[in-house]
Design goal:
CATH topology of the largest domain: Rossmann fold
Order of helices and strands: HEEEEEHEEHHEHHEHHEHE
Helix content: 10-25%
Shape: globular
CATH class of the largest domain: Alpha Beta
Mean pLDDT: 95
Number of helices: 9
Distance between the termini: 27 Å
Strand content: 25-35%
Bound molecules: adenosine-2'-5'-diphosphate
Oligomer: single chain
Largest sheet: 6 strands, antiparallel
Length: 263
């Protein structure tokens, strides 16, 4: 049995879990140790998971931590009959997760051409890569304004985003780097809250322009999008209608997308 596990784990890293936080009955996050040799760019994702019958059961997860942080943070949905998250949601401090240490992704600065404002549009756990981007000093070197939008069905699901902005405000060096550049817009669609509605509707009816000072414009703005497939398609169509060109690592552009990863 030992041998089978060793073979299946070739090239994988085993990472000790440090703390777990359950945000709602649908989401949780955790920190784990970061291998000294593991390098990634803020906004990338990695394959992580657990050993199931001696074999790694992995899914793509955005890394919430910025590239400079000495530990790794992940934010996950709980799918009660999901092969991985039905188990992963029960991890405890001291348990080990498995990671394939090959980070990839398009929600990175390298995939965008320079601009003045950066829009980070997310729904649900799609905020995860932006927890990385909004804590990376490079973001504030490159942009004058950074607009993070987070839309969820219920108010309770916005907590991770509010805690993220609190962590930025209370951080040792980030407040000086961020200044007043970061704008956080949190909206709900199925429960009453101070700001309601899908951001796609906010873009169309002018509410986003009112909240940020000007309508989306490919001449000045760059966009990263992360959420469900339906959300991505709608945001992508809006960007393209406005004249934004999609970017990639090999050919940087004006907007980039990545789907939020669920099982
Ligand atoms: P809504 O409640 O109107 O469907 P989900 O949990 O289904 O992934 O949804 C997370 C959030 O994303 C919800 O607030 C949902 O709004 C919103 N959403 C779903 N589809 C789209 C879309 N096509 N464009 C923008 N937002 C969307």
């Amino acid at each position: 049995m030992e041998q089978v596990v060793d073979k299946a784990l070739r090239g994988m890293a085993l990472l000790k879990v440090r703390d777990i936080r359950h945000w709602t009955d649908r989401t949780f996050s955790f920190h784990c140790e970061r291998p000294a040799s593991f390098r990634f760019r803020s906004g990338e994702f990695a394959m992580i998971g657990l050993l199931a019958e001696g074999k790694p059961l992995l899914r793509a997860y955005s890394i919430c931590s910025p590239a400079w942080e000495e530990e790794l943070e992940f934010y996950s949905i709980k799918v009660q009959d999901g092969p991985l998250t039905s188990r992963l949601q029960h991890i405890r401090e001291g348990d080990e997760i498995v990671m394939r240490p090959k980070p990839v992704g398009t929600l990175v600065h390298d995939a965008l051409v320079p601009g003045k404002r950066l829009f980070l549009f997310s729904t649900g756990t799609g905020i995860a890569p932006f927890a990385s981007i909004t804590r990376d000093p490079e973001t504030y070197d490159k942009f004058d304004q950074v607009v993070l939008t987070h839309t969820c069905r219920q108010v309770g699901e916005l907590a991770f985003g509010y805690d993220l902005t609190r962590r930025i405000r209370e951080h040792e060096f980030l407040p000086e780097v961020v200044g007043d550049k970061l704008v956080h817009i949190a909206t709900t669609t199925r429960e009453e809250s101070p700001a309601m509605g899908r951001i796609t509707d906010w873009i169309r009816d002018g509410r986003l322009a009112a909240a940020t000072g000007a309508p989306l414009d490919p001449a000045t703005d760059r966009v990263m999008i992360c959420g469900s497939m339906a959300m991505l398609q709608e945001h992508k169509a809006i960007c393209e209608e406005l004249g934004f060109v999609e970017g990639s690592n090999s050919e940087p552009g004006q907007f980039v997308i990545e789907k939020a990863f669920v099982d």
